[in-house]
Write a structure and sequence with these properties.
Number of helices: 6
Structural class: mainly alpha
Shape: globular
Distance between the termini: 29 Å
Largest sheet: 2 strands, antiparallel
Number of domains: 1
Helix content: 40-55%
Radius of gyration: 17 Å
Strand order of the largest sheet: 1-2
Length: 125
C-alpha cells in the first residue's frame, strides 16, 4: 500500500527500500507544489509562518497574511512581506516604511512578481 503524500494527496509519497528496511521520503515542498496548493481550501501542513502568510497573500486573503506579518515584526523577511502587503493594499507610504524596516529597496515590478520572488527565497525550484 502506498503512503499518502500530504503535499499532493493524489500522489503517494516516495518509499525507498534497501533489503528489508524501508524509509518514507519526507514530503518536500517545492515552489511548484506551493503554487499548486493555492487552489486548496486550507494551507498545506507544515508551512513556516512566512510561507503560510505568503500562501494567504497569494490568495488575496490580506487580513490573514497581515496578522501573521504583524506577529513577526523586526524580522527582515516579515518586514518585506509587510511592505508587500501594504503595497498590495495600495498604501504606498506605509509600504515604503516597511521596505525601509526590511532594509530593501521599494519593489518596482508587479505585485505578482514580488510575491513570486518572496516565495522563491523560501523554497527550492
Amino acid at each position: 500500500m502506498a503512503a499518502a503524500n500530504s503535499q499532493n494527496p493524489g500522489r503517494p509519497a516516495e518509499v525507498y527500500c534497501l533489503n528489508r528496511f524501508c524509509i518514507l521520503q519526507p514530503d518536500v515542498m517545492t515552489y511548484q507544489n506551493f503554487l499548486d496548493s493555492q487552489t486548496q481550501h486550507e494551507t498545506p501542513a507544515g508551512l513556516s509562518p512566512l510561507l503560510e502568510a505568503l500562501w494567504y497573500a497569494g490568495r488575496d486573503e490580506w487580513h490573514k497574511a497581515h496578522a501573521i506579518a504583524e506577529q513577526h515584526e523586526d524580522a527582515p523577511l516579515f518586514d518585506w512581506l509587510h511592505a508587500f502587503l501594504h503595497r498590495q493594499q495600495g498604501d504606498a507610504d506605509n509600504a515604503a516604511y516597511w521596505y525601509r524596516r526590511a532594509a530593501r529597496p521599494e519593489f518596482d515590478g508587479s505585485l505578482r512578481h514580488e510575491w513570486q520572488e518572496m516565495v522563491k527565497t523560501q523554497l527550492p525550484d
